[in-house]
Amino acid sequence: MTNAEQPSRPWLDQALLDPGSVFASPEEVVDHPELTPRQKIAVLRSWEYDAAEIAVAEEEGMQGPDNDLLQRIILALARLTDGRDAESVAPTKQHGLPT
């Protein structure tokens, strides 16, 4: 099925912009039956970028939630890519991920 043949999913567009507003956890993204592996990775990468930004803010003294979200996102990405997630390794704290 090509992109043109896939039904419109407004919730998927929202998930790409703000994954936490659509999914309760990174594991829920991995287990979602309607998403392709590529879509799951895209949602998790967006979430990873956001979580990394929060981690940077916390390091700079801003208060944020104290949780393991970033680690869980990285583990979810590793599950989808069989541990070969070269794009998440870069010299910046944000992992050099595109927006």
List keywords for this structure.
49% helix, single chain, globular, mainly alpha, 0% strand, 99 residues, 4 helices
Structure commentary:
- The protein is an all-alpha fold.
- The chain has one domain.
- It contains 4 helices and no strands.
- Helix 1 packs parallel to helix 3 (37-59).
- The model is unreliable at 88-92 (pLDDT under 50).
Overall geometry comes to globular
What is the N-to-C succession of helices and strands?
HHHH
Distance between the termini: 26 Å
Calculate Rg over CA atoms.
14 Å
Tally of distinct domains: 1
Give the low-confidence spans.
88-92
Helix content: 40-55%
Give the strand content: under 5%
- Helix count equals 4
Strand count, sense and closure of the main sheet?
A: none
In round numbers, the mean pLDDT is 79
> Would you report the number of β strands?
0
| Derived structural class | mainly alpha
Quick overview of this protein structure:
The chain is mainly α. It has helices spanning 10-17, 26-31, 37-59, 69-80. Helix 1 runs parallel beside helix 3 and helix 3 packs antiparallel against helix 4.
Secondary structure: elements and pairs:
Layout: H1 10-17, H2 26-31, H3 37-59, H4 69-80
Helix pairs in contact: 1-3, 3-4
